[in-house]
Amino acid sequence: PIRWMPPEALKRRRWSEKSDVWAFGVLMWELWSAAELPYSFCGADCEVYELVTRDVRLEKPDGCPDRVFSLMKHCWEKDAACRPTFRMLRADLLKIYVDLAGAGNSSRSYQNEHQDGRCIVCFDEVACIVLVPCGHMCACGGCAPMLQQCPICRAAVGERVRVYHAGVAL
């Protein structure tokens, strides 16, 4: 998998957690580029080898937020020691997710768009659990116990209350 390998693995066959971080950066790039093959403009693996070892990196995919691409580039640092750990990546991705999920999406606008009454976690069951203190009824009985934050407003979940609807089998 040359297209996912960092320079130190290509040149010296050295592998570490930081090699996996590099590959994770390429995976993020694939996700944002709608599954395009990394370095698709290269016909052969030897061309990819030359580009990566000469510090040529993948370009920002269309529609990819700047913060996400910045994180990808951090994963592709030439010096493996300068790359983030997976713990750091998790923290950064969570911050980015919360910011992107909250940008321009109030809980009211979300509820107006999502009125079918389904659980917004699994989309299979009827939402019958109200999350307290925010009051959003957005999860089914199976998914609600897993939630630490409301998926709509990101408020911490203190309590979960089942709501029974007359005439609806839950």
UniProtKB/TrEMBL annotation:
InterPro entries: Kinase-like_dom_sf, Prot_kinase_dom, RTK, Ser-Thr/Tyr_kinase_cat_dom, Tyr_kinase_cat_dom, Znf_RING, Znf_RING/FYVE/PHD. One of its GO terms (molecular function) is zinc ion binding. Keywords: Kinase, Metal-binding, Transferase, Zinc, Zinc-finger. One of its GO terms (cellular component) is receptor complex. Transmembrane segments: none annotated. GO terms for biological process: cell surface receptor protein tyrosine kinase signaling pathway. SUPFAM superfamilies: Protein kinase-like (PK-like) (SSF56112), RING/U-box (SSF57850). It comes from the Eukaryota. Residues 1-98 form the Protein kinase domain. This is Tyrosine-protein kinase csk-like isoform x1. It comes from Tetraselmis sp. GSL018.
